[in-house]
Amino acid sequence: MRVNLPVTNEEMKVPAGRKIISVTDTEGIITDCNDIFIEMSGFSREELIGQNHNIIRHPDMPPEAFALMWDTLKQGKPFMAIVKNRRKNGGFYWVDAFVSPIMVDGKIVAYESVRVQPDPADVARADALYKKINAKKRLTPLFKIPKVSTNIFILSALASAVSAAFLPLASAAVAIGGGALAMYIKEKEQTSVYKELKAILPSVYAHPVGILTYTDDDINLGALRLELKAAQAYVRTIFSRVDQAIGFVKDISHKSFELSDQTSKDMGVQSERTSSIAESTASMSQNLDLLQTNVVSTANFALEANTMAEDTAKLAIDSKDALNRINESSVKIEESVSEVSIQAQKIDSMLESIKDIAKKTNLLALNAAIEAARAGELGRGFAVVADEVHALSRKTDSYAQEINDVVQTLVTNSKSAVDMSKKGREIANEGADKVTASADLLNRICNNIKEISEMTNSMAETLRLQTDNAQTIKEDVAEVSSLSEDCSERSRQSNSSISRLQIITKNLGDMLLRFEHDYYK
User: Fold this and answer.
1) Which of 132, 259, 365, 436 is the most buried (most CB within 10 A)?
2) With contact defined as beta carbons under 8 Å apart, do 476 and 284 qualify?
3) Which residues cross the membrane (predicted)?
4) Which parts of 89-210 are beta strand (E)?
């Protein structure tokens, strides 16, 4: 058996009029409890739910009491006892507990315990009894037969109590208490009264240990008192369940109204969002038509631009070839001009030589004049001068011939350069024409590209609008989806509440059937 320690002598009283309620599954695992149970136990709801109910078992409680409880409950019968529970801090509290099975279709599905503030006398008896059981002492109650007059007095009082507690049985009880009991003045007559009262009272719980706990009377009267207490506890449990059910129905009704109201509002929003989606879809359809037209036009312009680009590429290649030929001609012209420059340099050099020869010739002529003036005596010197003049003359002729050759070469090269220049101009003109054609095509391509650019801008704007519409639709769809999920969740909550309500209604129905069976057997 589970032993919860430590324990202290600090007692907490159950508030008068409060009911401690908890529900467990068939294995004793707590599935639900009310706030007063949390307050009295000292545990939080999270610490209690999912734990075995013996989490609050006090070590002073004998294991035999719980064995008796489970044996009784598994038979589908309620159990009643004065119980000492342990609080989380080690303290304790006494309760008058009534535990009953919850039946569905004749099967036990759970157990409910309803505990109230116990009578101090019952607590004292229970405490003494449990100490004896724990000490393994023999229980020796004195079930003596009291005097006749005393029995009659007690039976009269008991009959009055029965009539007050159970209105349907009032007439019978009053008859017994008012007149019939006075006639039973013998022991066997008393026994008959006990039997008759026992037959009238519902058989809820009448275990001998319970008799020892709840009464000091003899076994017959004690059994009757215990039956009456058990019946009152049973009725209290029924009222508790009915009260819970009423509260639950009120809560469901309130929540259902809120869910219905919110669902109605959400449906209105959904309707608005659906209209917005329809408008956005229509706008998107128009924009898509315009976009399709622009795409077709753009494709045509792009195709034409592609053709022009191919033609321009060919012209560019031809222009490149022409320019290459111009370049080659330019190179040849450059070579020819360079050759002319070289020949010109040679001519310049030759002219310098001619100038030098001229100077020398002048000097020789001057010398010849001088020598001639001397005549005779200097004849030989004049001859030498004449020879020099003659040699210079030959050189001059030679240079003149060379100059002539150079000039001819210059003329030839110049002619070649002119021819090449003409050819270069022709090629350049051809290249210029092709470049002009390329420029025209490029202009047309530019125009097409401009058109494509404008259409692209238009398509971009259309796409932007489509994006905005798509975003709006996305947001509306998301909101509609969210609202749908909310509605679905509320529907699930409603279904869950309805299912729970059906279960509670079924449980109440089963409980009332058992109540009717027990009380009107």
Assistant:
1) 259
2) no
3) 152-185
4) 92-104, 107-116
